[in-house]
């Protein structure tokens, strides 16, 4: 028991140092995930001092601290994966166990009642956490956590059944197979759950870096490199299966005037609003990328020329016209139907069509 507490302490130190180098929006979740093994460590110390400290501390408080650690782990994962958490109901449940535990420890001592309460609440917490993790994108770290949560839930279930069958024993420290299985499972779970937290944090950081590498930080559109790479993939699909692919090149009209008159912050706001309006006009399979400055690319997989012109017209009409603070847009469209066409040739045709739209008075669509 003390060894599992020491392992929890060491793993919490790892998470503390990891948290310092993580983005701000991930630190709240990591902070709670760091608190969880610290609380587990404190609970093992209190359990280990049973007989040397009053039962209200070594029994009631120890159980509360252990449940609090599991709650911190659950809420921390919610914040870490989704940025929000539901914690009030479980917090009230854990706090509500305190007077019940105290009653059946001090006023009307009953190990069986305490054990049923503890295993029921802990089992429900583990199963709730397991259900939450199963809803997250599948990964190795998530699989590790789910397996450990499932193992611990099974052990707690067996422990609850032993109480109902009258084989719970006289106390936590009584020698026996069930107590040995519970303490061993608890030690392994503490270690593996904290290892799972480290793996999840490392994997999340990798995903964050990949996102930064492929997305424009201002508009969250794909970077030029990323959208051109996807265009190459679609052209390869055209060569294999004959599926057409269309490309739209968009340029905001008179964008420089907005920067000069209202400042670059307002110009940034216009770019953000433009990408938001444009996304609403696209399908989930379509890709929006920032080509440079106020120029954007839209990749339309499996789209012929007629359909691409319809999409471009919807995008054009979605933009606010002056005197609203925004920009109209000129669009050039090109469609690849021949297997031998390169990405450079497709871009050149879309660019030529864009300049034709500019020369024809702007805020229009032309096909190359």
Structural commentary:
By secondary structure, this protein is an alpha+beta fold. The protein has two domains: 2-214, Rhopdopsin 7-helix transmembrane proteins, CATH 1.20.1070; 224-367, Alpha-Beta Plaits (2-Layer Sandwich), CATH 3.30.70. Helix content is 69%, strand content 9%. The chain contains twelve helices and five strands. A five-stranded mixed sheet has the order 2-3-1-4-5, with helices on both faces. Helix 1 packs antiparallel against helix 2 (24-48), helix 1 packs parallel to helix 7 (177-214) and helix 3 (55-82) packs antiparallel against helix 4. The longest helix is centred in the middle third of the chain and has 38 residues, at 177-214. It is elongated and about 90 Å long. 37% of the residues are buried. The model has no long low-confidence stretch (mean pLDDT 86).
Low-confidence region ranges = none
Helix content: 55-70%
Strand content: 5-15%
Strand order of the largest sheet: 2-3-1-4-5
- CATH fold-level topology of the largest domain: Rhopdopsin 7-helix transmembrane proteins
């Amino acid at each position: 028991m003390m060894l599992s507490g020491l392992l929890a302490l060491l793993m919490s130190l790892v998470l503390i140092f990891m948290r310092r180098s993580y983005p701000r929006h991930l630190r709240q979740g990591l902070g709670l995930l760091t608190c969880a093994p610290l609380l587990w460590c404190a609970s093992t110390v209190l359990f280990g001092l049973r007989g040397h400290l009053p039962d209200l501390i070594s029994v009631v408080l120890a159980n509360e601290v252990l449940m609090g650690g599991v709650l911190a782990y659950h809420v921390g994962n919610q914040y870490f994966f989704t940025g929000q958490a539901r914690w009030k109901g479980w917090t009230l449940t854990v706090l509500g166990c305190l007077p019940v535990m105290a009653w059946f420890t001090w006023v009307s001592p009953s190990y069986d009642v305490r054990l049923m309460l503890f295993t029921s609440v802990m089992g429900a917490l583990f199963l709730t956490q397991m259900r939450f993790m199963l809803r997250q994108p599948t990964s190795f770290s998530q699989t590790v956590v789910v397996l450990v949560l499932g193992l611990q839930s099974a052990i707690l279930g067996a422990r609850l059944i032993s109480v109902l069958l009258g084989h719970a024993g006289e106390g936590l420290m009584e020698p026996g197979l069930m107590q040995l299985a519970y303490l061993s499972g608890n030690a392994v779970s503490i270690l593996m759950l904290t290892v799972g937290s480290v793996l999840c944090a490392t994997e999340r950081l990798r995903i964050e870096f990949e996102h930064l590498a492929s997305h424009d930080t201002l508009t969250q559109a794909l970077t030029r490199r990323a959208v051109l790479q996807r265009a190459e993939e679609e052209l390869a699909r055209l060569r294999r299966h004959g599926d057409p692919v269309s490309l739209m090149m968009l340029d905001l009209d008179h964008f420089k005037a907005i920067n000069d008159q209202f400042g670059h912050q307002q110009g940034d706001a216009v770019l953000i609003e433009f990408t938001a309006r444009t996304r609403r006009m696209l399908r989930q399979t379509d890709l929006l990328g920032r080509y440079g400055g106020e120029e954007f690319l839209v990749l339309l997989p499996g789209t012929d020329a007629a359909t691409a012109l319809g999409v471009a017209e919807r995008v054009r009409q979605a933009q606010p016209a002056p005197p609203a603070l925004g920009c109209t847009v000129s669009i050039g469209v090109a469609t690849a139907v021949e297997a031998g066409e390169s990405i450079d040739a497709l871009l050149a045709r879309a660019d030529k069509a864009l300049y034709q739209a500019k020369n024809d008075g702007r805020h229009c669509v032309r096909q190359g």
